[in-house]
Design a protein that fits this description.
With 439 residues, this protein is an alpha/beta fold. It is built from 18 helices and 14 strands. Strands 3-2-1-4-5-6 form a 6-stranded parallel β-sheet, with helices on both faces. Strands 11-10-9-12-13-14 form a 6-stranded parallel β-sheet. Helix 5 packs parallel to helix 6 and helix 11 packs antiparallel against helix 12.
């Protein structure tokens, strides 16, 4: 079986590599020649644990190819996944120009029946637009050719994407015909052998499922952060509250950890897009608007604590920052809380020395040298007035507290992820500020 993946970003590369791993012949296509050349050399554009070895192995075996030539790749392909970016516009709507451009080019070059599958996160109704672009291109060619358009949203967690794809909770597919169903069943047959369910539905429902899933998870995060802020006011401990409510199976214990807000490529963009889509159709998503507002405010909570501790004046002070990526096990800096905190510290006259195990190259690309980059977490704290824990990387969880205390000008820690014990920090002689517990 031959399939094409258009787009070699996070979703496209993981999808293409994992499908090749189960024996499908995959061609990953991208317009970026440098990216394609690097992929052929085993150099990936993203950091994702385990993906590099999987990609290299399948490329060496010939099951995974990389190309910039979509017209050649699409010939005789049974299916083509569109996995290009849908960046948010200024109004929060998803930008579909890249998705529709790919659809147009597919229509200009396909020569046999195939299923075009939207893998990018796209608003409800996008598949219909993709179908029109392809049909218009075929009409211009004077070619009567059958094709189908389907929706197959991804539910990958950055940092665990390979495992998520190979062992999915569910595979959601929106289809319009029995032919499309047969092609997609063929693609995902290796996964159903292990009992992973494929849930078929109509295309608009599949498109909505992706947004609804991310919006629900974002809602849980913002709800818990709002509760955390109230806990601080009322003198409650949000860590205990979390355990109390998380033991209820109707609520569960996932996505209810308080912190400094969500970031990344999915939640912020998808919440904004769903709010915008609803508004365009005469409906206000009041809960989701509050989710976004809470999240925006939450990214400043750690900075506000810092300013309060230093009586509103941090001019000339230096702060160590542990973690830059929006979550562990990824180098993704998009919408990361660290960016907000850095901007605010610098605007207030302070400086930042940052360390992240993976994301520093991406940070340098995004923000340049407005911060100093350390070679280790311990180098970052040397001579700093306080430590800010921003990303909960595993290697930060059990550090050498004596070395940290000896290196800091003041033994002060602002923990935006609640990874340390309040009692232990007190016993060690630290001033410790976390989320959802009154200091």
């Amino acid at each position: 079986m031959k399939i094409v993946i258009v787009g070699t970003g996070y979703v496209g590369l993981v999808t293409g590599t994992c499908l090749a791993e189960v024996g499908i012949d995959v061609i990953c296509v991208d317009v970026d020649q440098r990216k394609i050349d690097n992929l052929k050399k085993g150099i990936l554009p993203i950091y994702e644990p385990g993906l590099d070895k999987l990609t290299q192995r399948n490329h060496e075996k010939g099951r995974l190819q990389f190309s910039t030539n979509l017209p050649e790749a699409i010939k005789d392909a049974e299916a083509a996944f569109i996995a290009v970016g849908t960046p948010p516009g200024e109004d929060g709507s998803a930008d579909l120009q890249y998705v529709l451009a790919v659809a147009r080019e597919i229509g200009e070059n396909m020569n046999s029946y195939g299923v075009v599958i939207t893998k990018s996160t796209v608003p409800v109704g996008t598949a219909a637009k993709v179908k029109k672009e392809i049909q218009d291109a075929l009409d211009r060619r004077g070619l009567k050719l059958q094709f189908d358009v389907a929706s197959n949203p991804e539910f990958l967690k950055e940092g665990a994407a390979v495992n998520d794809f190979m062992k999915p909770d569910r595979i959601v597919v929106g289809i319009e015909s029995e032919n499309a169903r047969k092609v997609i069943e063929k693609i995902y047959h290796p996964f159903t052998l292990n009992g992973h369910p494929v849930i078929f539905m109509d295309v608009p429902s599949a498109e909505m499922t992706k947004y609804a899933a991310n919006a629900m998870l974002a809602t849980k995060i913002s709800f818990m952060n709002d509760i955390a802020n109230l806990c601080e006011i009322m003198g409650a401990d949000v860590n205990l509250v979390r355990k109390g409510i998380g033991s209820d199976p109707r609520i569960g214990n996932r996505f209810i950890y308080p912190g400094i807000g969500y970031g990344g490529s999915c939640f912020p963009k998808d919440v904004k897009a769903l709010v915008r889509t609803a508004r365009e159709n005469g409906h206000e998503m009041r809960i989701l608007q509050a989710v976004e507002d809470v999240n925006d405010d939450q990214k400043s909570v750690l900075f506000n604590k810092l300013m309060k501790r230093f009586n509103g004046d941090i001019k000339g002070k230096k702060f160590a920052m542990w973690g830059l990526s929006f979550k562990p096990n990824t180098d993704d800096m998009r919408e990361a809380p660290s960016l907000v905190i850095i901007d605010k510290i610098i605007a207030a006259g302070g400086s930042v020395v940052a360390y992240d195990p993976v994301a520093m190259p991406e940070a340098k690309h995004m923000i340049g040298d407005i911060v100093e980059y350390a070679d280790s977490e311990y180098e970052a704290v040397k001579g700093a007035d306080a430590l800010l824990v921003v990303t909960e990387w595993s290697e930060f969880r059990v550090p050498d507290f004596e070395e940290i205390k000896a290196s800091l000008v003041n033994p002060i820690v602002f923990d935006g992820r609640n990874i340390f014990s309040i009692q232990r920090m007190a016993d060690l002689g630290f001033e410790y500020y976390c989320i959802g517990v009154k200091s």
